[in-house]
Amino acid sequence: MTILDIIEKKKIKQELSAEEINYFVEGFTKGEIPDYQASALLMAILLNGMTDGETFALTDAMLRSGDVVDMSSLGGTVVDKHSTGGIGDSTTLALAPILACCGVFVAKMSGRGLGFTGGTIDKLESIPGFDTALSEDEFFGVVKKVGCAVIGQTANLAPADKKIYALRDVTGTVNAIPLICSSIMSKKLASGADTILLDVKYGSGAFMPTPESALELAEKMVAIGTLAGKRIGALITDMQQPLSDHVGNSLEIVGIIDVLNGKKNRLYYEIREVAVKLLALTGKYDEKSAEQAFQRAIDSGNALNKFAEMVTAQHGDESYIHNPDKFALGQRDAVLADKDGYVTGMAAADIGRAVTHLGGGRMTKSDVIDFSVGVVMQVAIGSKVNKGDVLCEVYHNGKGLDEAKTLISNSVFIGGDKPAEHKIAYAYVDKNGVTLY
Ligand code: URA
Predict the structure, then answer these.
(1) Are 213 and 201 in contact (CB under 8 A)?
(2) How many whole angstroms from 171 Cα to the centroid of ligand 1?
(3) Is any ligand 1 atom within 6 A of the Cβ of residue 164?
(4) CA 102 / ligand 1 centre spacing (Å)
(5) Is 168 a known active-site residue?
(6) Whose CA is nearest to atom 6 of ligand 1?
(7) pLDDT tens-digit profile of 74-122?
(8) Which residues on adjacent β-strands are paired with residue 82?
(9) How far is residue 292 from each of residues 43, 139, 287, measured CA to CA in Å?
């Protein structure tokens, strides 16, 4: 077997065997297959696709390239959720304590932000002292004691994905469903949870432009997870505007504290939808009792207290959770509406880019983040506005302010007609099939 034979085979749309896929993944991870041949194969996969069998073999080879975490010592149901990424998507931060209050373990490994999307780990590090790099023993200890913990991905989790993803990023091969599917699922399956909810986003702030393309990706990922023996489902959710009205690192923690205090906004309803589906997937709840458990966790204040408990267990200063005014924010400015009308749509990714310009995100991996900057949206799609109304508050420290304000001003579209209501979720898919909302 040679890598050239494998490239030739994919070039003429033939199905690769599991052995051939394994040969590629192992050889590339060890540095035996050069970038130029790996790039050619990735482009052939992007152009000619992969069968479910090939995608499963690719996922399996990538997950076996590193450690597979064993959570059985926790002695309970371990759940995980994964979002394909978006703007103001801070759901994990509230879900972890809420789900822990509902009697399941959340042992979550999350990523950092790059480009226009924020990262859960950066947001948590805006809480003074919060440690996202606990040792494996300490991580398991916190999960056992508190019920939830969130850390960064360990270096040896699916290392093949790290190498392949870096190459895809510079060869125009990110946007291929089998490659996205194997990249996400190799990490999810290696993380060791038994029940997984995928939140696949579509729209102007997401990878997938349309609900149909997001559903196609979701169906593939659910098929792979089911084949791997997991309880797994996927929600297809709207990312045509920031999910939280708070976008930025400290600001998103403030937005999450609002939700844990019971503030009912888009973020709250999305978190409820994800929590209910995930709890129902575990088999410990049906959807009705899951919703009741969710509500109890919020109304009793237990979820907020659980978040504070997790912060302390991960060496953070929990006084910030009880008193969010302690978060240092930049100076306040605003973007105003330049005409009367309704907000008809948003270029959500550009709102994420605006936060990056302010210093709240990374253009390159080595950039240092300013936790104190970001935006607080004052409107959503469908809001009625008059000329001069505040569309968005901008928190800044001088850097990138003009670029950010121009980007935001151009990314909130105002027109004469009230748009149709934007639903939070478009569909749900699990092993029983697709439910359209
Ligand atoms: N997120 C991932 O982890 N991998 C992809 O390929 C796309 C999104």
Answers:
(1) no
(2) 15
(3) no
(4) 29
(5) yes
(6) 180
(7) 999 999 999 998 899 999 999 999 999 999 999 999 888 766 777 899 9
(8) 198
(9) 48, 29, 9
